[in-house]
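[[Per-residue structure]]
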Amino acid sequence: QVQLVESGGGLVQAGGSLRLSCVASGDTFSINTIAWYRQVLGKKRELVAAITRGESTHYADSVQDRFTISRDNGKNTVYLQMNSLEPEDTAVYYCAARPYSSVTRQEQLYDYWGQGTQVTISL
């Protein structure tokens, strides 16, 4: 089993920055790809960014050039650096993990999920 814990959410003004962290524990050797999803109340969860163990990355078009995903395998941690934040980025952000070295948008293909961290961007 793998446990994922997110942190770093909060309230910032538009144009500001936040860095989210996702720390994995347990059978971390079984994890390959880690993704960040976000969900607005009443809407479907969407893939924001993902990174494989080999550090191949994927971004949603809406965050390309503003968000950067990275990982520190020694610390079992994945980061999401979010710059130039917009009110539309307001959501609960979740990290998710799967054992395969491929990125998929299909959330049912991620085996492990964190509890989420709230990000709120004000005007």
